[in-house]
Design a protein that fits this description.
Layout lengths: L1 H19 L4 H13 L1 H21 L3 H16 L3 H18 L2 H18 L2 H9 L9 H21 L3 H21 L5 H13 L3 H14 L5 H17 L2 H17 L7 H11 L3 H18 L2 H129 L3 H9 L2 H21 L3 H7 L17 H10 L5 H8 L3 H12 L9 H6 L6
Length: 551
């Protein structure tokens, strides 16, 4: 009865947890696949950090500095390459011995022993733990590391032992060291929470273990080694609760954090691969176990290779079964396809005969269509040329009408001015005012005034015809070379030259005659402006001629 009630409570709790956490596997697998793709980049980053530490170690002369750098190199290799980590662990022992620092030597023994436990070398681990005098340990963190290492060691010995008595004794010793950590560690620390969850897990108190796991989860940042370990333990709780989806979710989360941290000593990824293989997702399982095998090979610990081998065997057997099923299905499909091929061949002969009957009519229709297309293209070209001509004629007529009207008005004004000038000269002659007459005819002020008025009239008429000329002209120049006249109603010499080109007057001699400059000066102006063009300078003047034309 008690067991039945426990099962009901366990099932209810599992459903509550499953409802509270809805895994998004598509997003998680996408992150994991991306982490696998970027693994080489992560390893390159870690190697770069290691190379920097090695360079500092070579340059260091102070024994303590060298010890600390060796310690950093041990930490850098700890989850990356087992052989290198062991080498630097032994180097720490030698450096501490040279300095006569028994405390540092003890810490190095503990670190090296922990590394041997991680790599499955339990005999070597036990040897180095025996070198530690537990009574001499003073610092709480060193004691915690010592107890944690022994907890892990005897837990592993018990797990892999086939001797019942030895297994039971090892589990008791492992539990004792775990209890020591729980008693001494801060109850808010990650170490205490991990050991508390472990204790509750071994007692099958999964609901309470999940409660402390939730607290543990808030203490660790995603994509860190601590998060990876928390996620792995969380997956184990869900496995015991029978929640396969959440077990798979947290295995994937743990594997993702391992890969993004460049950790080669990992279990989550190959365990996830085994689970996916059993669920039929062989392609993903193979990809994950292949990556896990690569990591285990790089870490170079026989224990990991031994653990992954059964998963590789299972996936290989599943592949063979799938291949046999696929081959059987392929044979059935080949038979079906052969039958359909015969049917299609008969249909092909029928269709071929019908196509021959349609060929002649189709050819005639094709020739007619080609002729029609050719005529349409010719007509389209003619229409386009006519449209272009009409636009140019319309633009030319607009310019002509405006300038003819202004020309007549200016001619009338000049006739009046000449008559007034004649009257003044006649009066001066009658009055024998020859000196005044010489002064009047000797000054060029009249010419300058008339030129100014001529240019003002030209500018006014041109800007009325092409109000956006200045903006469009500047758009043809590089931004830093834009020309800004002193007045929006007047053009300067540069703009006036290209205004004449826009009106179709593109010979430098004619432009020079109108503006009272030498042809060489006009040529120099044109060359200087074209060098400021934003695009190709060779077609700059042609683009100027197209300003204001409405297509």
């Amino acid at each position: 009865m008690t067991r039945f009630i426990f099962l009901i409570v366990l099932l209810g709790f599992s459903r509550i947890v499953a409802a509270a956490e809805k895994p998004d596997f598509d997003s998680l697998y996408h992150q994991l696949d991306k982490a696998i793709e970027q693994l080489d980049d992560r390893l390159a980053e870690r190697q770069e950090q290691i190379n920097s530490l090695k360079a500092q170690y070579v340059k260091a002369h102070d024994p303590m500095r060298r010890y600390l750098l060796a310690e950093d190199l041990f930490d850098a290799y700890r989850k990356l390459k087992n052989d290198s980590a062991l080498a630097y662990g032994n180097l720490c022992i030698r450096l501490a011995d040279k300095m006569g620092r028994a405390d540092l030597k003890t810490e190095s023994y503990i670190r090296l022993a922990q590394q041997y436990v991680e790599s499955g070398a339990y005999g070597e681990a036990e040897k180095y733990f025996e070198l530690v005098d537990a009574e001499q340990l003073r610092a709480d963190d060193v004691k915690a590391a010592y107890f944690d290492g022994l907890n892990h060691l005897f837990g592993e010995l018990a797990f892999y032992s086939s001797d019942a008595d030895f297994k039971q004794q090892s589990y008791k010793r492992s539990d004792a060291y775990r209890d020591s950590i729980i008693n001494m560690a801060d109850t808010t620390s990650i170490l205490w929470l991990s050991k508390k969850v472990s204790l509750l897990f071994t007692r099958n108190q999964f609901e309470e273990a999940m409660h402390y796991s939730d607290i543990w989860k808030t203490k660790v940042e995603p994509e860190t080694p601590d998060y990876a370990y928390m996620a792995y333990i969380r997956s184990e709780i869900y496995r015991r609760l029978g929640n396969s989806d959440m077990e798979r979710y947290w295995l994937a989360s743990s594997a993702n954090s391992d890969l993004r941290c460049g950790i080669m000593d990992q279990a989550s990824l190959w365990m996830l691969a085994g689970k996916l293989s059993s669920e039929g997702d062989l392609e993903r399982a193979y990809r994950y176990v292949e990556c896990s095998w690569r990591c285990a090979t790089m870490f170079n610990a026989h224990l990991r290779s031994w653990q992954i081998s059964p998963v590789l065997t299972v996936i290989n057997d599943n592949y063979k079964n799938q291949l046999r099923n696929t081959n059987h299905l392929l044979r059935v499909l080949v038979g079906a396809v052969s039958f359909l091929a015969l049917v299609l061949f008969g249909l092909y002969l029928y269709v071929r005969r019908k196509r021959r009957q349609l060929a002649a009519a189709r050819n005639e229709l094709k020739e007619a269509n080609l002729e029609l297309v050719s005529l349409n293209e010719q007509l389209s070209d003619k229409n386009q040329k006519l449209l272009t001509t009409n636009i140019l004629l319309s633009d030319a007529n607009r310019v002509k009408d405006e300038y003819i009207g202004k020309f007549l008005s200016i001619c009338s004004d000049y006739i009046d001015k000449l008559d007034n000038y004649r009257i003044k000269v006649h009066r001066k002659l009658k009055a024998n005012q020859y000196s005044d007459l010489l002064r009047m005819t000797g000054s060029e002020q009249l010419k300058e005034d008339e030129l100014k008025e001529l240019f003002d009239n030209f500018d006014a008429v041109f800007l009325r015809l092409f109000p956006t000329f200045i903006e469009e002209f500047n758009s043809l120049l590089r931004p830093e070379e834009h020309i800004v006249p002193s007045s929006k109603s007047r053009l300067n010499t540069d703009l006036r030259i290209f205004a004449l080109i826009r009106l179709g007057i593109d010979e430098s001699s004619k432009i020079a005659e109108f503006l009272h400059y030498s042809p060489n000066s006009i040529y120099a102006y044109r060359a200087r402006i074209k060098n400021k063009a934003a695009g190709n300078r060779d077609d700059f003047e042609q683009r100027v001629k197209e300003i204001g034309i409405q297509g």
